[in-house]
Amino acid sequence: MARIEFNNACVDFPIYNANSRSLKNRLLNVATGGQLNTDAQGRVLVRALEGLTFTLNDGDRVGIVGHNGAGKSTLLRLLSGVYFPSAGSVRIEGEVGSLIDISLGIDHEATGRENIYIRGSLLGMSKKTISAQLEEIIEFSELGDFVDMPVRTYSTGMHLRLAFAVSTIVQPEILLMDEWLSVGDEGFKLKAKLRMNDLVRKTNILIIASHSKEQILQTCNRAIWLEHGKIVMDDDAAKVATAYFGD
User: Fold this and answer.
1) Fewer CB in 10 Å around end: N or C, the chain?
2) Predicted TM-score of the model (pTM)
3) Looking at the domain assignment, is residue 154 inside a domain?
4) What pLDDT is stored for residue 87 in this prediction?
């Protein structure tokens, strides 16, 4: 069972060395993605998320929409534990898995096999668990003998296949995504799509930030529209998609 509870959650980023009036004025003029405030010490704060209140339960497939700078990536990072709320509260029950950056931790000087262990450990997998699934990961990646070569010798496609094969072996209760993953040539893309569909089907809660109306309608049963760090609309996916993208 998984559950996410946001209660008036806010995220602020302090801007240091911004005490001069002229710099504050320039920041006010160029800021489009958040809101500028000052704290008790007079430091400039960019409020990336403000007053977010919502609850997600098992079965929710939530699309996050909004223009660049609306707060989508900040929300995903808050959910993954990279950021913490500056005000309000966030309560998460269930194991969280992130597919936001599938290449995170990949060492270009290490072999593909070694990187499977590196990336797997970053995903919270034990060495024993990785070893038990090692051959499946290698087979899925289609690297063959290249798995024992340094990643710096890989093509971009090979690199992505390796990262995808490792990152999607986990089965979290809460899955975070920044756009739908599609990697490799046409043959591998079909494999990747089937694995992604299976991963989404098995997860308790899915949260995906997307600029694709089609993806939101195909994948989600609910959507949250963010603008300037605030929720504009939280409703059925089709209603939000129509309001945001238009007919």
Assistant:
1) C
2) 0.85
3) yes
4) 94
Written as one string, the DSSP assignment of the chain is --EEEEEEEEEEEEETT--SHHHHHHHHHH--SSEEEE-TT--EEEEEEEEEEEEEETT-EEEEE--TTSSHHHHHHHHHTSS--SEEEEEEES-EEE-S-TTTT--TTSBHHHHHHHHHHHTT--HHHHHHHHHHHHHHHT-GGGGGSBGGGS-HHHHHHHHHHHHTS---SEEEEES----SSHHHHHHHHHHHHHHHHH-SEEEEE-S-HHHHHHH-SEEEEEETTEEEEEEEHHHHHHHHH--
Q: Identify the burial level of 247 via C-beta atoms within 10 angstroms of its C-beta, where 0-12 means exposed, 13-18 middle and 19 or more buried.
A: exposed
Residue at 184 is within a domain: yes
CA 97 to chain centre: 9
Give the domain CATH number at 87: 3.40.50.300
Residue type, 201: R
Are 159 and 186 within one domain? yes
Residues 231 and 193 both lie in one domain:
no
**What domain range includes position 196?**
112-203
